[in-house]
Amino acid sequence: MNLLILGHNYAPEVLGIGPYTTGLAEHFRGSGNEVTVLTTFPHYPNYKWQGRPGLYRREFPAGVVVRRLRVILPRRRNAIWRMVFDSSVGLCLLLNSIGVSRPDLILSVVPTLQSGLAGGILAKTWGVPSILLIHDLPLEAGLAVGMLRPGAVQRSGARLERFVYRLATRIVVIGSRFRDNLVAKGIEGARISIISNWIELDETIAAKSDPDMRRRLAGSVDTFLVLHTGTMAEKQGLANVIEASRLLANDPTISVVLVGDGPTRQQLAAAVDRLGLANVRILGVQPGKDYSRMLAAADVLLLNQRRDVVDAVVPSKLLHYMAAGRPTVAAVNGASVAAELILDAKSGVVVSPEDPGRLADAIQNIRNNPELRQTLGRNGREYAAKNFAKSEIMEQWDRLVVECRNSLG
User: Does pTM top 0.85 for this prediction?
Assistant: First the structure.
């Protein structure tokens, strides 16, 4: 099979959806298929070029043909610049397809919607089936963080969204709430498959608490380590964590560490400096090979989201948190996908978002209850092993691809 994948995030990006697109491409290449990826140069999560991008480049990592074409990155965090970026992604993916052999199947990754649009146009042009993989609901995410407001722009986006969804032969969502959202928008449920993101269970479970890693993260092996990993952006609302840390500042036994990067990292670091918080450390993105060791070194893993984030996002790091066997303290909307997942797994404590007092209390309470920590961590690991093992997720993808490829034959 000749598979064409479209999406603006790909390795060496280690945060967000890039690792999942990369994992799918390398899985299908390892199964003996020809795989071509149309993408741009690494830029996530800061939306700044990592290294010197150039205009066009072709690479061959793990036997995958990766064609990179430069897009227009947003200069500001607002709706206009986001539309410019998204539109440039769609246009560049179409331009990047020039010279590509006719594939047997196209897989487009959302976000952005324009990736799905480009994939749908190419599928219709070539007369081949297409799969749309939806990681985020872009319109809901934009509304949640205030980048998009109800009105003419939002309505235009909704029309584009419905058009893109209808172009696809099949749609894959990573959770049942996303499926419900699409069905409510008029998309036939029979065209929608639920395939979760995955985790490398063996690697994560094998990691043990390492004093050297604890010292590297918190500066000490003795403190109670509360760890947040991943993107630092509007959806995460991490100012709430900084304020909760201020409330915990008189307790020298607790250290809060944020590891990752994103557009709000500098603001968070400035707030830590302004408040003189010795109990908070903000570290940049760490090598991917150390991720499991970082999680294993923590006592509690932290998830924080803005109040308005309900159905738009399924935080992939939560799956890794569970597999690590560490409890999660989550300051998220009680009706959110994240809260639903944590409560279903019985793997953590959910508190009100944007309420630093509640978050600080939850951290102290779980610090004082080691038996609860052990129980929650064990529950999370068992839930992850049952639901998110990579081998089983890839089997689902293999079945779907065969079914979709045969749909036009």
Answer: yes
CATH code linked to domain 201-387: 3.40.50.2000
Instruction: Name residues whose C-beta falls within 8 Å of residue 66's C-beta, 6 or more positions apart in sequence.
Output: 10, 36, 37, 39, 58, 59, 60
Task: Return the DSSP state at 196.
Answer: -
Please tell me the CATH superfamily of domain 2-198+389-408, with its number: Glycogen Phosphorylase B; (3.40.50.2000)
pLDDT in tens, 65-111: 999 999 999 998 888 888 999 999 999 999 999 999 999 999 999 99
DSSP string for 271-293: HHHHHT-TTEEEE-PPPGGGHHH
Tokens of 151: 């009105």
For the chain, the domains span 2-198+389-408, 201-387
H or E segment and range at residue 38: strand 34-39
The helix or strand, by DSSP H or E, that contains position 180, with its residue range, turns out to be helix 176-184
- Strands laid side by side in the 348-351 sheet: 280-283, 254-261, 224-231, 300-304, 328-331, 348-351
Distance between CA atoms of 365 and 68, rounded to whole angstroms? 49
